[in-house]
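Protein fold
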Amino acid sequence: MPPGLLSLVAIVSGSQEPSKSPTGLDPGDDAGVPLAYDYTEAGRLLGVSPSSVYRLVRDGKLRAVTVGAARRIPRSELERFVDDQLASTVRGGPA
């Protein structure tokens, strides 16, 4: 499993505390892990296609940032999305 996804799963499952820094990162724990991912990388981490990531951004379910001319999905946004999906599934709502 990719290291970024392992971090997402650990934080969402509660076995790892999220960082308290303004960026949501603890540089000591996440050295070398990207701050943001392109749509292909984000899709791979979420287990969906890049076009599904594009749709999630277009529909406002995922937020993207512009870096230069490129659109990127912040890692913290992927974590929020997964957390929201898990919470919705636990409550019995639509995933």
Residues 3-91 form one domain. The beta strands are 36-37, 65-67, 70-74.
